[in-house]
Amino acid sequence: MDLQLDGKRVLVTGAGRGIGKAVALRLAEEGARVALLARSRDDLEAVAASLPGESLVVPADTTDDAAVRAAVTAVVEAWGGVDVLVNAAARPASSAPVPSLADLEDDALRVEVETKVLGYLRTARAVAPHMTAQGWGRIVNVSGLNARATGNLVGTVRNVAVAAMTANLAEELGPAGVNVTVVHPGRTVTERTPPDVAAAPADTRIGRLVTAAEVADVVAFLCSPRSVAITGDAVAVGGGTPGTVAY
Fold this sequence. Notes:
Elements: E1 9-13, H1 18-29, E2 33-37, H2 41-50, E3 55-57, H3 65-79, E4 84-87, H4 106-134, E5 137-142, H5 153-173, E6 178-184, E7 188-189, H6 195-199, E8 210-211, H7 212-223, E9 234-236
Parallel strand pairs: 1-2, 1-4, 2-3, 4-5, 5-6, 6-9, 7-8
């Protein structure tokens, strides 16, 4: 299937590593021009060197609205607009023990909201006028399956908030031709995953962990004109959660 992404102007946040990096590579392979955003210029330069086709490095911290707007302006000045935004700039889920309510500090949630929820909102807010002016666009927010589970209050709240934001943006922007979706990865194999963990059986319906490249395959479809029938909804990309029914 031709995803019709050839020549599309894409901005990927969190592109220096993990799922964001994998998404950038997958979209570049589809012929898109990919602008890479993260805090580390060195990481972005390394990713850019590995991409086929045209790319652009725009370092920025998504907790800084002025920096986000400047990065989007740089992309628009270079390429004349933005067709696709993939938001993946977020702190990875921690493997540390989850604190009890008595031990949970305000900043644990405040930092996550500032980085993931407001960070995604800032980039969407900056690109939306360009997409609506041209009558077409795609925004894909990378959230997480903690949105559908208890046991980690901070993880659940931040990911549910991203899903709620996605639905609201989809309703506002949809009439102008802009689709907004959210994907929920589970534990995902990235370049930082130890080989023994990546190869071990996992509690998923496919019996193993999903890779960042496999998440990127789904994201690439959602970024394409082919995905017009999907907007405002959440797509799980964690290999299937046993014992649950999502409806």
